[in-house]
Amino acid sequence: MASSNNLCLSNKNISREYCSMVTASNHEKSKNIVRKELLNAESSKICMSMIDALQNLVVDYHFQEEITMALTRQCRAIVESSGRDDNGTLDLYDVSLCFRLLRQQGYHVSADVFNKFIDKDGKFKVSSTKEDVRGMLSLYEAADYGIEGEDSLENVKVVILKQLHTSLITMEHDLAKLVEYTLECPSQKRLPRFMTKQYMELYEKIGRKNDVLLEFAKMDFNIVQALHKKELEQFVRWWKDLGLAEEMEFARNQPLKWYTWSMATLSERFSEERIELTKPIALIYMMDDIFDVYGTLDELLLFAQTINMWDLKEMEHMPDKMKKFCRALFETTETISLNVFKEHGWNPLDSLRNAWTSLCNAFLVEAKWFASGHVPGTKDYLKNAIISTGVHVVFVHIFFLIGESITKQTLQLMDQIPSQVYIVATILRLWDDMGSAKDENQEGNDGSYIKCYMKENNNSTMESARQHVLEMISNSWKQLNRECLSANNPFSPSFTNALFNAARMVSLMYNYDENQQLPTLEKLIQSTIFESIPL
């Protein structure tokens, strides 16, 4: 970054304080109480609301087995009975919440469960009365888990959005806050770890307060926050020892931003994996800058040849800065591969090398386009630009670092870029090319889908082109739901969750203001990593 903001970690002292007021025994005692309350929930509605709260408070990772049991036993029963509760009546809130929780968990639940709420004209029976607001909000969030072809769910979002905005002015304060929170960051697009504090404030006011759960969530937040600080400190130490920042002064030096990707993507139990994942993320940014702002085309051809051969002997005629990067890339990749082999018994070196080679070659294609002044068609541009996001490189590393569901089938899929990863990369690329996503003063040789689209469609305006891209992003989310929430998804829940989290992170990471800064993300990072919660 050009300016010294919170995402550009210079000599910031990272505290190692481990929330001394929180003892392990208090934390464990509260956790056991919460577990009992979940298992002994008196009704399906209480159970579902508690699971929803656990997820929003980001302590659900402690209770995965119990949550799976509860969803199977109680929520599925509600869906199969078309949403009828103990009195035989229909409850829009319960059915919508159950639908969302089950789809999140990987159950294939038909949207037909909502048929009882649809009138003869095919429209949802919803109102803006106070009693129905939570049902509407629950349905609004459930609709985000729709897949292609479930048009009724997509259409109802527009209706609900209009009704809620109209009635906001007359709502009581706490309910209005809940509506604003949900509309601003619905469940499917929300990164709970960044929103935990805001949800805690709401949780204390919206009539579902559970003192033990809230206290446990606060303790857990501080414990995990201390862990994040420690992880960040370890990565910064590695980054400084690597020496690339001093050698490649033209490139971005944003260790906090790079770590934020890992923190947001991998769940709480993957501490060492977050540190290791941040290393290739940093190198992706550096390689991008080598192509965009540093190398000549001749130098980049030599650079790409070295990466493809994966041989330091090919570096003879390259600039020293490129040589140093190649050494760092090779050594880091080989070290990660060795550690994965020791931990999981698989050697990922060939897969990692192939991913880096594909990324480098995609960058080279873009460099050749720029050097020749060629503006490709949208299909050619997007096909290459999806690879040049680096998303595939990141997820190949995630796949091997977490070491779950590694089979011949999933190995083959990862080498070919599975559709799930391809979709996440599409979302990132399209957000990146929306126009406001130009990184901090990096005046490089980037392409743009918008530019390609407007050239291909002579009558298109900037506004219509952006609207087209927004529709593509919306459709990509539906495709991601279909691929990741399907019973045939071959990847582990942890890997699938990482896919969703990466897609959720995109809109925060590329939401630049007029000063090319990320004020929203900076505020969330400050709150999440550096400001603990008083107990």
TrEMBL record:
Keywords in alphabetical order: Lyase, Magnesium, Metal-binding
Residue ranges constituting the Terpene synthase metal-binding domain according to the UniProt record: 240-479
Membrane-spanning ranges: none
UniProt keyword Cell inner membrane present: no
GO biological process: diterpenoid biosynthetic process
Swiss-Prot/TrEMBL cofactor(s): Mg(2+)
Alphabetized GO MF terms: magnesium ion binding; terpene synthase activity
Domain of life assignment: Eukaryota
Positions of the Terpene synthase N-terminal domain: 24-183
UniProt keyword annotation of Metal-binding present: yes
Annotated PANTHER family: OS04G0344100 PROTEIN-RELATED, S-(+)-LINALOOL SYNTHASE, CHLOROPLASTIC
Protein name (database record): Uncharacterized protein
Organism of this sequence: Stephania japonica
